[in-house]
Amino acid sequence: MRRRDLYLHEEIMLLALRDREGTLFSGTMYNFAIGGAILAELMMERRIDVETVKKKTYARLLSPVPLGEPLLDECLAKLAAAKRRSALQSWVAKFAQAKALKHRVAGELARRGVLRVDEDKVLGLFRRKIYPEVDPRPEREIVERLRRAIFGEEASVDPRTVVLLSLASSADLLRLVFDKKELKGRKARIERVVNGKLTGKATQEAIQAMRAAVMVACIMPAVMAAATAGR
Predict the structure, then answer these.
(1) SS3 122
(2) Torsions phi, psi of 83, nearest 5?
(3) Residues 71-125: tens digit of each pLDDT
(4) What confidence tens digit (pLDDT) does each residue in 210-222 have?
(5) Per-residue CA distances from 83 to 78, 88, 179 (Å)
(6) Under a CB-based contact definition with an 8 Å cutoff, are residues 80 and 62 in contact?
(7) How far is Cα 42 from Cα 49, in angstroms, rounded to an integer?
(8) pLDDT in tens, 4-38
(9) pTM of the model
């Protein structure tokens, strides 16, 4: 990948942030999408692959060689140091809980001139960092790629866009940039894309495993919260 391009987890962050306010949209599971994006990036960079054992999917280390991106390398090192294998959804959840995840991803985008680091006050009392957008071009390109994949009729979609669409769909981010009714009308097309119908077999299997892992990771906090509330 060319270094001037964004990583998948950076693309997810741009979709999840309000452009002017620099704050996160509420009601999304952006952090799990970022966890999935990190795992997907490691797969596409051939650092890990998917191993299926008794219908469960695990992350298998192929190479511990760093990629040169701090967050990805930290997550790769954790995976390489693990004493026993874990299911994909476990890694998605672990990466989603990385310390200062939002600030690290948004901070890197700010370093590259896409966002700006600023501060505001919550209720006039508590200071927080915010990340307004200063260069709209990268996000416009992301949205246009998604638009072509969702509303176009191309017979093939590049793997990175398929993964991005799958992650954004699983974490409920698509509604932030597209009309809900229009999305509903393209549900069948979205399913065809994210189910790998327009990609090769190897890519299809990896994307399916990734999508399932993100969806499970997104659902588990709600299940745990409901179970706790019912006690």
Answers:
(1) strand
(2) -80, -20
(3) 999 999 999 999 998 888 889 889 999 999 999 999 999 999 999 999 987 766 7
(4) 677 676 666 655 4
(5) 10, 15, 45
(6) no
(7) 8
(8) 589 999 999 999 999 999 999 988 888 988 998 99
(9) 0.87
Most distant CA pair in the chain, distance: 54
Round to whole Å and give the CA distance between 150 and 132.
27
- Bridge partners (DSSP) of residue 110 are none
Q: What is the pLDDT of residue 196?
A: 66
The per-residue DSSP string of 127-142 comes to EEEE--BS--HHHHHH
Question: Phi and psi dihedrals of 13, rounded to 5?
Answer: -60, -40
Tokens of 211: 């999508």
228 backbone dihedrals φ, ψ, rounded to 5°? -65, -40
| R_g of the chain, CA atoms, integer Å | 18
Quickly tell me which residue has 């962050």 as its tokens. Answer: 13
| Beta-carbon count within 10 A of 172 CB | 15
- What is the pairing mode between strands 48-53 and 56-61? antiparallel
With CA atoms as reference, report the closest residue to 183 among 171, 169, 197: 169
Closest residue by Cα to residue 173 from 67, 75, 27: 27
CA dihedral 171, 88, 73, 207 (to 10 degrees): -60
